Amino acid sequence: MSKIIVIGGGPSGMMAALQASKNNHQVTLIERNGELGRKLKFTGGGRCNITNNRDIEDFFEKIVNNRKFLYSSLYSFTNRDLLDYFSNNNLEYKVEIDNDYKVYTKNDKSIEVIEALNKDLIQNKVKVLYNKKVVDIIVEECENYNLPTVKGVVLENGDKLFCDKVIVSTGGMSYSHTGSDGSMYKILNKYNHTINKIYPALTPLTIKESWVKNLQGISIKQVEISCKIKNKKISKVGDILFAHFGITGPVVLIMSSYINKVLENQDIALKIDFLPQITEEEISKAIRENPNKNVLNNIKSLLPQNFLKEIFNILSLSDKKANELSKSDELKIIKYIKSMELTCNGTKGINTSMVTSGGVSVKEINSSNLESKLIKNLFLTGEVIDVDAETGGYNLQIAFSTGYLAGISV
Questions:
Q1: Which ranges of 219-294 would DSSP assign to H, the alpha helix?
Q2: What is the pTM of this model?
Q3: Which of 147, 210, 289, 327 is deepest in the core (most CB within 10 A)?
Q4: How far is the C-alpha of 120 from the C-alpha of 301, rounded, in Å?
Q5: Both 140 and 286 in a single domain?
Q6: Which residue spans adopt a coiled-coil conformation according to this UniProt entry (predicted)?
Q7: What is the model's pLDDT at position 408?
Q8: 3-state SS record for 143-208
Q9: Taking Cα atoms as reference points, which of 13, 43, 207, 204 lies closest to residue 126?
């Protein structure tokens, strides 16, 4: 039996603590808040998007950074394994097939996930220390190893807790009010771990064009957003919501994860097709369908009226009967619907991002067991590592899977 300390009581840390305890280790879980899973409460808009029901092989195309590093973690503890775990712990869930196969609790309550994990922690005799912040780790040279070895942690009040192994599950820097303020990055960097630059991921985007604020509150389903970065086209489909600062919504959040690094140095031209499933010819036919009716009336079933009216304003067009609309004006309308161009000049920042891009370099972590290559008996899981994925339950699955792998490896 070894003494294990897990730092951080999020999904990754709780799963790591559970698996280590089930392997007959003496486990202490240190949480800086007065409760476990504080950030988990907010996921999926409070509904908790536990995972995704796609085949695990399909997860990798949804991972934005360092997907190969996650092979061992995701195959060691798949989404099926995770759902079986929750079923065995009396948590009911549902798969929303029409919502990208996202998995939620049956009652749409994230607290049920936390309660299931917490109950299991109690049953497996994991000791939880609440309201305790780790400000350092204890690392010593060891004659038995070529590497320095972790021996424990130092708490904010100066107390030292000694152990055989440490699992770091402290998260990134997004939602910092929940406790993930990035302070662990500084500690790990002090012991020579490379911390790749932090960027906001899954975050709203700011738009340069001032007229966008006139579209505030308008949401449109299943649009296609695309851009070119280094001659490579990036294209994503999903729902969009206009805001006073720019754009947000699922497809925008996903796009942000692919362009966040480039935005640091330059603006990016985004092209939006608001009707990717309909051709230009079909839109033209809709515009002309009833010659004696106004254009806006003819196409009101395709897009929201207030959105179409704003397009007319932008193009300096007045609504008129279809038979009075010139061909050139028709083409202008169609072009704006099929290829509106917006200039993205930034993101809303790390405090509004759902996850963190960047963190501890995967080059310094053994992917087969998540042990540090620089410090013996130190393991890292979840968002503290430089891995992130698209929205849809993939990031939570990464947290649970890496936590599981570290827990069975200590």
A1: 250-263, 280-288
A2: 0.94
A3: 147
A4: 51
A5: no
A6: none
A7: 98
A8: CCCCCCEEEEEEECCCCEEECCEEEECCCCCCCHHHCCCCHHHHHHHHCCCCEEEEEEECCCEEEC
A9: 13
- Angstrom CA distances, 248 to 205, 240, 255, 263, 274, stand at 6, 6, 10, 16, 14
CA dihedral 336, 217, 228, 69 (to 10 degrees): -150
DSSP one-letter string for 7-47: E--SHHHHHHHHHHHHTT-EEEEE-SSSSS-TTGGGGGGGT
What residues make up the domain containing 318? Answer: 205-347
At 361, the amino acid letter reads S
Using alpha carbons only, what angle is made at residue 152 by residues 147 and 156, rounded to the nearest 5 degrees?
130
Other C-beta atoms lying within 10 Å of the C-beta of residue 50: 28
pLDDT tens-digit map of 120-134: 999 999 999 999 999
How many whole angstroms from its chain centre is CA 24?
33
The DSSP element (H or E) to which 307 belongs, if any, is helix 305-314
Is residue 356 within 8 Å of 383, Cβ to Cβ?
A: yes
Q: Are residues 269 and 339 in the same domain?
A: yes
Q: What is the pLDDT of residues 378-409, one digit of tens each?
A: 999 999 999 999 999 999 999 999 999 999 99
Last residue of a domain, one of 347, 368, 396: 347
Q: Mark out the alpha helices in 79-145 (DSSP H runs).
A: 79-88, 110-123
51 CB burial (10 A radius; 0-12, 13-18, 19+): buried
Domain co-membership, 52 together with 187: yes
